[in-house]
Amino acid sequence: MIVITRMKEITNMKATPGEAICVIEEFLPGNWVYEDDGIVRAAVVGKVIPDLRLRTVNLKPHVKIPQLPTKGDVVYGIVTVLHDELAIIKIFASESGRKYINPFTGTIHITQVQESYVKNFYEVLAVGDIIKAKVLNNSTPYSAAIKEQKLGVVMAYCTICGSPMRKHQSDTLKCSKCGNVEKRKLSVNYGNIKI
Ligand SMILES: [Zn+2]
User: Phi/psi of residue 166, each to 5°?
Assistant: First the structure.
């Protein structure tokens, strides 16, 4: 009876680290709590959730679990490093509008660029390009692909003068200032993005 009364008192109580929740004779320590000399205390900021069946007390942490990219997500990234067969990108937002304050590192292998043969990355991407890519796995380092029509470069700047490039042909861009023409694996959404 005492335990049930106590349970009602502490259920949904907001606890801060170190705060006493109950004594171990009432409830044993469960998740996100610890025992200190017979007293169960909160280990994190959270809401108290007792479990009468197991006779334990748990906390539901108030921390925000960061939303991570997962397999199949379409994301935006900036190209940071190019090798012959590997591009390294920083994933900074998802297509659905989620922004990642600490960008995730991703890699694109040369075989994930397009169905047809690509000699090396310098033919299809340049450092500084903003690309739309599909995530292929569920944890860092992420692998990504840009094969689909909607995937690929969505914004690029001239490697000679730094001005924005305009779509010229299906796989080329033209600098609006100096007229320089460069090859890319373009997204059909090139120049038409809202990040
Ligand atoms: Zn230019």
Answer: -105, 150
